[in-house]
Amino acid sequence: MRFTMNRLARILVPPLSICLIAGPALSAASEGIGSEYVIGVGDELAVDVWQEQSLSSTATVANDGKILLPAIGPVDAAGETPSGLGQEIARRLSNFNPRISQVTVRVVGYRSRSVSVLGEVASPGRYGFAEIPDLLAVLGEAGGPTPEARLSEVVIVHGDGNGETREVVDLERYIEAGEPSSLPGLRPGDTVFVPGATEGASLGRNVVYVYGEVRDPGIYPLSDGADVVEALLMAGGTTEQADDSDVKVISRSSHVRPLQIDVPKLMNQGSMDSVPKLRPGDTVVVGRRSEFWSGFWDRSREVTLIVSAVASLYFSYHIYRSVR
Question: What domains does the chain contain, in order, with CATH numbers?
Fold first, then answer.
C-alpha cells in the first residue's frame, strides 16, 4: 500500500526534527564528552599537536586497533578515549621534542558505530553516530523516505559477532499506532533497506534480497535454480570495496544459520554446481574488505610522512636546544 503525502509528512517530520536536535548533540558529544566515548575500529580521528602543527594529521583506526602517526608510528587507539589517547601521543612525542605537551584527539567519523541506509531514501549511505539512535532518526539522517518508498516492508539486517539476521518491519503500522518507541532497536553494523513501491508485496514471493557491497542493492525476482552468483549479477556486481570471499546467505528462517561463501574459491573449482542455490526470501550480503588492505597505499604514503616528520622533529629539537 502506497502512502499519501499527508502520511509521508507524518512519518518524515519526526525523524527530521530529531535530526535537527540530534545533529548538534552528536557534534557536542564528540567535543564536549569525548572522554566518555570509547574509540573503535574504523573510527576516523583528527590529531592536533598544538606545539608542532606540522605533526597534526588525520588517521583511521585499522582492524588491529592501531593508528599510524607521523614520527611515532603505530599507536594503540581502539578501546581508548580521545583524551586518554591524546595524552599518550603527547607523552611519546615529547621524547623527541620536549616542547610538545598538548595533543587533542577528536572523533570526526564514527565508523565503528555506523548504520548503512539503502533503497528509497533521499541520501543512501553509511552514517556514523556517537550513540546509535532509533530507526526513525536513522532514516531522518538519510534525508527521510522518498515518495516511492514502501514503509510497510522496511528490512533490517542485523550484523553481530554471531552472523547476520534479518528482520522485516512494518513502519507504517508503528507510526499510525503511535508506538514508534516499540520499533526494533538498531546496532552498530546494521543495514536498513527501504524498498520501493514497485518492489512491494514481495515478502513471501519468489524474490531475493541483495545488500552490502554491491552496486545496486535491492529486491530481485528469483528464478528457479538461481544461485548466489546470479543474484550478485542482478545487483550490478560487487563494488571495489567488496570482499568476495565474505558473502553471506541469510535464510528467512531464524532456525537456519547464515551460510558464508568464498565466491572466488568456488568459481576456481570450475564447477557451478558448487555455488549454493537460493530459496525464496533469502538475503545475500556482501562484506567489505579489510581497512588494512583497502588503505595499503595510504599507509605507504604515511610511512613517507613519518620519515619527513622525524627529520622535522630532529631539527626542531636541535633548534630548541640551541636557544636554551
Answer: 44-109+293-322 (3.30.1950.10), 202-289 (3.10.560.10)
